[in-house]
Amino acid sequence: MAGRSRQIALAFPMAPGHNQQLFEGIAEYARKKANWLLSAGPETFSMSISELHGWRGDGVIALINTKRQEAQAAALGVPVVDISAAMLATRFPRVTNDHRVIGRIAAEHLLSRGLWRFAYYGVRGVWYSQERGHGFIDRLKQEDCEVHQWQARSSIRRGVGWHDWIRELEGWLARIEPPLGVFAVHDNRARMLMDVCRQMGLHVPHDVAVVGVNNDPLTCEFGQPTLTSIDRNSQLCGYKAASLLDELMSTRHAAPENLIIPPGALIARESTDLLAVDDPDLNMAVHFMRSNFSKGIDISHVLANVSLSRRWLENRFKRYFGCTPHEFLCEVRVEHAKQLIIGQKHLTLAAVARECGFGSVRQLREVFHRLTRTTPREYRLIHRQRLQDDASL
Fold it and tell me: What would the CATH number be for the domain defined by 280-389?
């Protein structure tokens, strides 16, 4: 018997990307509870804490970004789970990511691009921005890299004009000599940064390589170049938030500890598609490989495009990358295969092989195993098991 219905309010914007995936995770958990009724705004499917004044329900999952919102949530007198990390802490249990790990992932990716000068583009007074910045900068300090940072005014607590944001960002970027690798606190800020680079005549990624956070398909794929971004396991965050709320409503005991969800994978796209070596011909060869690997090219196509001898290309690749051009091309294909295997679960191995430029599934399996010591199927199962382990935390 399901028991009486439980009315659950979702007090956060139903925007595409991260928030939408949070909702999907919450909905997945709610489907297992026959008596859960999810409530959101009637027009935009969004609801704020203030709109719940006088509401008589059983629990709330909310983005609590300010002290005022915290007080409004407390006044409701029902269990609340916070899915924001804008403040260091609230009086409510929270589900969030390990934001320092997110920063480290961004740093390691930009380091792998061959860069030596970096910058963090964050927002002031926002706890998760501070944490991501610490993770990013601490990792780069281990390599004795040059690191800059800019903390923009936040739009969470007060309105800031678009022109003011653009002008401040232009002034900051103008003071740093390219090439530069920038980690932006989230995808929207990363896209704004790339727009400013274009206005200033800076090329992304060759002058400024950019990494964002949230892996929002709309933001990442909108416009040129596409944006490299770190996935946050948002659906899992939503699922765990719903599970935590269920526990609070059932026991009414002291609030459990906050839940920290590991981030997902970094999805590499055009905004970091470079290797910063001081050799224009080599850069041209690398760019050709990264742009055409899915077309089934081999090294003869690369040589024809850059008009270089095979001996020269072999020597340069071994000097800069420690591998042959063929090995480098295989690594590019396998990295893309990993993303498809994890992110496009509906794809067959035959489709993955075609998308990555392999001649057959057999070739995909052989190269994948040589570079990763696992088969594509094993790699997918390992990732799936890791997500299940995260869900059981």
Answer: 1.10.10.60
Contact assessment for residue 181 and residue 115, using Cβ atoms and an 8 Å cutoff? yes
Q: Is the pLDDT of residue 116 over 80?
A: yes
Inter-residue contact 97 to 248 (CB < 8 Å): no
Report the length, in residues, of the chain: 393
Q: Which residue is it, tokens 């921005």?
A: 129
Reported as a pLDDT band with limits 50, 70 and 90, residue 13 is: confident
Chain-centroid distance of CA 98 in Å reads: 12
Which amino acid is it at 87? M
Strands across the sheet containing 36-39: 36-39, 6-11, 59-62, 80-82
Q: What ranges do the domains of the chain cover?
A: 6-96+234-261, 99-233+267-272, 280-389
Using alpha carbons only, give the angle 299, 209, 65 rounded to the nearest 5 degrees.
140
Contact 9, 52 (CB under 8 A): yes
Handedness of CA 22, 62, 91, 214 (dihedral sign): positive
**Does 391 have pLDDT greater than 50?**
no
What backbone phi and psi angles, to 5 degrees, belong to 5?
-70, 145
pTM flag (> 0.85): no
The CATH number corresponding to 99-233+267-272 among 3.40.50.2300, 3.20.20.80, 1.25.40.10, 2.40.30.270 equals: 3.40.50.2300
How much of the chain is in helix, strand and coil states, percent to nearest 5? 50, 15, 35
For the chain, the average pLDDT equals: 88
pLDDT at residue 393, rounded to an integer: 45
Contact criterion met (CB below 8 Å) for 342 and 348 = no
Angle (CA) 377 381 382, round 5°: 115
Helix-helix angle 349-356:361-372, to 10 degrees: 80
- Judge whether residue 97 has pLDDT over 70: yes
In the structure encoding, which two tokens stand for residue 123, read together?
A: 């927002």
